[in-house]
Amino acid sequence: NDAKVLDSLAVTQDNFRFALNNIKPGALRAAFVEKSTVHLEDIGGLEDAKRELLEFISNPLEYAQEFFELDVTPLRTVLLIGPPGCAEARGDDTTDSMIYHLMSEMDRIDSREDVFIIGATNRPDLIDSAILRPGRFNQLIYISMPDETSRVAILKGALRNSLVAKNVDLNSLAKTTTGFSGADLHEISRRAGRFAIRESIAKKKRQSHVRMARNWDQSDLKPEICREHFEAVLKLTRRSVSDNDLRKYEIFFAQILQQPQVLCTQLRFPHQEQPSQGGSGEYK
């Protein structure tokens, strides 16, 4: 009877579909997928980098006809490079098999519609040169340290849900934090908030031992981030990226851009007569 049951079994196409939907490739079992809740408008500053990213994704979608008419394959991959706290990268020990799987997928990305890969790293010196060749991460964007205007935007974003006292001048704070990364500014804001909470808790403990007046305003005990909290934090805070390290990133990025380039400074098209009727005449 058991033999008859085994002989009657057969693997069908539906069985393969079920298996494909429930089995994860071995090279990706150490990875995880996280749906981000952060939008571009939540990121302070970096206007040029955000504009490039938007064009990278939106142009092939909104102007697909132009790409089709010129038979141009749109870029599907981009790599963000920058110091720690600017181009954030999350990961652990990456295996050779995972790198091989990533490159294999990137080689096939041009044939897929509406698929984009955005990578980020603060260790460009460890990147396998094969990943940077044309057809893979051939579009690089350098995420620089935020300038003063960007620092104001970052601080506003970091404090948008916090109760901030009127004596806090974010423009002055941005001037004081020259050379600080976006991650540094977020940490400064968080630590100032913790100082405010600590102060509020201490006030509540003191008031619990004092008989409160009938008209006592409890709003005085609500935690509020004041200028003094930021001043206390800045005395204990240092930049995460030194000027020397920053120069190394800028030099390294410039070298990456120069490596694949062969400058054709002597290129000249042969002289052409006036375009015949029907030509656009736009280029002469």
UniProtKB/TrEMBL annotation:
PROSITE patterns in the record: AAA
GO molecular function: ATP binding; ATP hydrolysis activity; polyubiquitin modification-dependent protein binding
Domain ATPase AAA-type core per the UniProt entry, residue ranges: 91-144
One Pfam entry name: Vps4_C
SUPFAM superfamilies (UniProt xref): P-loop containing nucleoside triphosphate hydrolases
Domain AAA ATPase AAA+ lid: 167-210
Family annotation (InterPro entries): AAA_ATPase_domain, AAA_lid_3, ATPase_AAA_core, ATPase_AAA_CS, P-loop_NTPase, Spast_Vps4_C
Residue ranges of every copy of the Spastin/Vps4 C-terminal domain listed in the record: 221-254
Any Gene Ontology CC annotation: cytosol
Gene Ontology biological-process annotations: autophagosome maturation; mitotic spindle disassembly; retrograde protein transport, ER to cytosol
Keywords: ATP-binding, Nucleotide-binding
Family to which this protein belongs: Belongs to the AAA ATPase family.
Protein name: ATPase AAA-type core domain-containing protein
Source species of the chain: Rotaria sordida
